[in-house]
Amino acid sequence: MHQSPVDPSGRAVWRPVGIRDVDITGGPFARWQRINHEASIPLGMEQMERSGALPNLRRAGGEGEGPFQGYRFQDSDLYKQLEALSWEHVRAPESEYARFADEAAAVLRKAQRADGYLNSHYQVVKPDKIWAELEYSHEMYCAGHLFQAAVAAARAGIGPGVVEVARRLADHLVEVFLTGGNDGIDGHAEVETALVELYRLTGERSYLDLAAKLIDNRGKGLVKDSGMGMLYAQDHLPVREAGTAVGHAVRQLYLEAGVVDVYLETGDESLLECSLRRWEDMVATKTYITGGHGSRHDGEAFGERYELPPDRAYSESCAAIASIHWNWRLLLATGHGRHADLIERTLHNAFAASTSADGLRFFYVNPLQRRDDLVEDAYLGRRREWFACACCPPNIMRLVASLGSYVATTGDGSLQLHQYMPGTVAGKVRVETDYPWDGLVRITVEEAGEWELALRIPAWSETTYVDDSPAEADPDGYFRIRRDWQAGDTVELRLDMTPRLSYPHHAIDAVRGCVALERGPLVYCFEQADQPEGVDVAELALDPRAPLRVKPVADLGGAGRTVLIETDAVAVHQPRGGLPYTTKPLATSTAVTATAVPYYQWDNRDGGAMRVWIPLA
Amino acid sequence: MHQSPVDPSGRAVWRPVGIRDVDITGGPFARWQRINHEASIPLGMEQMERSGALPNLRRAGGEGEGPFQGYRFQDSDLYKQLEALSWEHVRAPESEYARFADEAAAVLRKAQRADGYLNSHYQVVKPDKIWAELEYSHEMYCAGHLFQAAVAAARAGIGPGVVEVARRLADHLVEVFLTGGNDGIDGHAEVETALVELYRLTGERSYLDLAAKLIDNRGKGLVKDSGMGMLYAQDHLPVREAGTAVGHAVRQLYLEAGVVDVYLETGDESLLECSLRRWEDMVATKTYITGGHGSRHDGEAFGERYELPPDRAYSESCAAIASIHWNWRLLLATGHGRHADLIERTLHNAFAASTSADGLRFFYVNPLQRRDDLVEDAYLGRRREWFACACCPPNIMRLVASLGSYVATTGDGSLQLHQYMPGTVAGKVRVETDYPWDGLVRITVEEAGEWELALRIPAWSETTYVDDSPAEADPDGYFRIRRDWQAGDTVELRLDMTPRLSYPHHAIDAVRGCVALERGPLVYCFEQADQPEGVDVAELALDPRAPLRVKPVADLGGAGRTVLIETDAVAVHQPRGGLPYTTKPLATSTAVTATAVPYYQWDNRDGGAMRVWIPLA
């Protein structure tokens, strides 16, 4: 049995490598997995008591006093937490995790109703409204996260009985929404992809059928407007007709993961087609350079095409995760490296920025600019230990724990390497690299025989070498080597790590006249902490002809190892006073040195200003 | 008795001219007053039944069936509507208005409790929560609008008994919040300025004292967080300590009007000082070129300094009105023309754009950019006939009806002209002008004798003439002429109507690399409807050296008379596809002609794209 969160049995071009079969041994992601194990997951386990997730479920099981705590979707925090520590237990077993899973499983077994229903909010607070407020109840959303937790717990062999709880709830869903007369959807998509995962674990076909039906049910006006409009929940149009990603970004992206999952199992081409159509539109017009999605705080929404403000970017951490889920399924479905390219961009930037270097603080929102002297934001744009709506932290933890499964795929004996980090992959190769700091990736073959090794050539790598010869990607974005390998054979891939400036499309109004600095997979930003005394990040402007100097740093004040980029720039001064509109441009400028740091490492020092996009001088 | 909405008895440098003493006889504002009379106010009167405002108050008086309709502040719609038609009745008496006021007065007299309390939502829906949910109840907010309606009804001599209803409610407020033990504020400031107005009408000192106390009570944590944070309601800091405008823009701006009103009556300099400090900060960093305020949909908030996105501008119509109220009081308090300058900018742009040319549709939000093919906005960015939360339409109507009172002031026999439009002012002068289409303003003296005529010289008028001699504004922004006038004497003021390009301050990220086009007091925009076939507003870019050609138009497809501005420009093309970030700028351009229309006249034809800020070629 494969041990990956996604293990499609049907139309996949490639198949995932089991999570046990990838070992990440160095680099920023190995560091993050360690911090996740030692700091984030323990913090999350604590929060499951404090935030009410476990106590609520105990109340549903008839134990414990006091009122329901938190949001109606509070159960989902526990499910994501359980999923995170289960994947982490697969990777690096830990008795504390197993103990927590035991306890959680016991609570869930007790809380579940005899008919299979399980949702502490509706059981405790609104038993008369069960399945009656689908537009905002999050009942199926919570169920979906339970299903995913159960899949992980099964792979880890912890949490006794959780799979049975999940199956009983899934069977109940099938009775109500597939074979019963109830037509509906959950206002927050998520259960669709989860049902397919549970189908893959159990082989129970009705779970897949229900997922397909829930996708077909969307956009038919089967549930009410939650008050946020029909686009908010992607219920404005049937899935096959919708042409662009809209509304609540996380909902849209989870829905897409489900759409592709159903395609992968049923072969319904119309699903893959509509999802790819929205993907292309989204990538071209609604994607931040960090890989983030969601341009509006209002409605946590995508926003219009080319509406990509850096300061008010929502770019929710959960949206980055959901986008990785979707792109991974598209990669399996199409074998096209553009999806692995976007996963890389998202992993190293929007997603990696979500968590502090010590693993103890998290961003919900990942803007590309923070001004100084913030007033309106109650948290002054800093990471926080936890949130009243804590969807992000345990979601981050589950992806970090299962990162290994996004590194490579196999197919007919072949191996595709999608993400570069040191480690061993599927018993076939060992990877040595100092990526993303350096572009050299040395692959040593461990499995002899004739098979094809495919190496993703990122679109950003202008000049790429394999074993000292120039290497071009094929139309799918890979460089393929078919050989009769001997154990110990090596291949050296050299990606182009020359720092580069990126210009935004003319239609992106919010960053007109600006450039962003990138190197390899990393987007850079200018943080106040790295600028010379008296030089304000808000005043920086770049000369695109100035050399970009690479400066390795062993430890950036607790943010860890990094590579800074320094350049000659100017500081632009303009006095404040009167209306800020004048019939002549009034700014003057002076020469300064500007220093950039990888975006994912920002906000690990002070609460100073930050910008990804810098005006051209 | 003066007949102006604001008639300060205390520290005013200047005094308002009574609303009956100004007659606007031509130009866009006379047209608007006519449309307001014939279309908007009748529509509003109808809506007072349909939207529930009158029925709710009938229910409070024990008449009528059915549940409470609309928001908890629904009463305020009626009060603003009553105020609007009262001022309009002063200007142009109308029996239908008097009849409506009779009916409204009867309903109010019946709805008011014996102790003076009056609020239909709390009387009908939550009698046990009266004065117990100040953070969001809007009880004092509604009371304030009743007080203002009563002042207007008194001046109009309609709505029998409304003044008495208002006084009884104000006395009740005094009992509860001034002499009683209850300390608090209303989450939505408004009652402060209204109490001062009622004090001016009645001479009842306790109303002024209560207004002063409510201002002192702010920022002391006397009421709970409504869930939107303490900044939202300006309750985060004492009024004298707050350094910048924050939170819900309309609340902040109404509060400021009250702060200056209390200064005008009590002479408490600390109030004027703190209000001016915030005014300077706001003008320099948080004001749109249209005069609008409020940069965020989320929380309807000001946003951070220099956060001024054109597409997501909130710039609520009510904020424009509240800003005019505040600036008018500052003008009276300081005699400085910069406040009249901002009133002019706001009146002709952010405020004037709020209403369609036929007076039957309204903007709640006044953005400076509308993209084509909008998806996320349920109303596609168009004006609407009415709103569930209908604060704006009757608010617009009351300001249009009372516009005459913002035109001029007097002081010791002198006359100050602040806004230019054809008409007669205070029996002292007659004004003839084709403003804002033409810069010539001819003033004919009607009152003989020695007195000073002060003419505001707008900051935008680069070269100004008075009677063919170059004229400079004094430090307060006025050109003053003291003479022994003969009836029939004339003065000719010539303002500079050369079209001009305006550059944003370097720190305004959202419109970097763009310019706006202005002429006289009017900000222009580029609407799709005026561009040549095949030229997309989203693609326009301007050459700042190209001549700006002025093109008078008799009627712009129902939007009325206008002056278009035409210029040679380019259309910038960049293909869509893949990520919108590239290592080289990829845009190409072709020469085109671009045509701009006054911003206030936009959205009177189709739902096409619009931009105020255009990239530099």
3D structure, described in words:
Chains A, B: Residues 416-497 form the Non-reducing end beta-L-arabinofuranosidase-like GH127 middle domain. Chains A, B: It holds the Pfam family Glyco_hydro127M. Chains A, B: InterPro entries: 6-hairpin_glycosidase_sf, Beta-AFase-like, Beta-AFase-like_GH127_C, Beta-AFase-like_GH127_cat, Beta-AFase-like_GH127_middle. 2 copies of one chain form a homodimer. Chain A is of the alpha+beta class. The first copy, chain A, has 3 domains: 15-406, Glycosyltransferase, CATH 1.50.10; 409-494, Immunoglobulin-like; 500-615, no CATH class. The first copy, chain A, is 35% helix and 18% strand. Chain A contains 15 helices and 23 strands. Chain A has helices at residues 27-50, 53-60, 74-91, 95-111, 120-124, 134-137, 139-156, 162-179, 191-202, 205-217, 249-266, 269-285, 317-334, 337-351, 392-401, and strands at residues 15-16, 22-24, 369-370, 408-411, 414-417, 423-425, 429-433, 440-445, 449-456, 465-466, 469-470, 478-485, 490-494, 500-504, 514-519, 522-527, 540-542, 548-553, 562-573, 581-582, 588-598, 610-611, 613-615. In chain A, the strands form 3 sheets. In chain A, strands 3, 14, 15, 16, 17, 18, 19, 21, 22 and 23 form a 10-stranded antiparallel beta sheet that branches. A 7-stranded antiparallel beta sheet of chain A has the order 2-6-7-8-13-10-11. In chain A, a hairpin with an 8-residue loop joins β18 (548-553) and β19. In chain A, α3 (74-91) runs parallel beside α7 (139-156) and α7 (139-156) runs antiparallel to α8. The longest helix of chain A is centred in the N-terminal third of the chain and has 24 residues, at 27-50. The first copy, chain A, is globular and about 75 Å long. In chain A, 59% of the residues are buried. The mean pLDDT of chain A is 96. At the A-B interface, α12, β14 and β20 of A face α12, β14 and β20 of B. β20 (581-582) of chain A pairs antiparallel with β14 (500-504) of chain B, so a sheet runs across the interface.
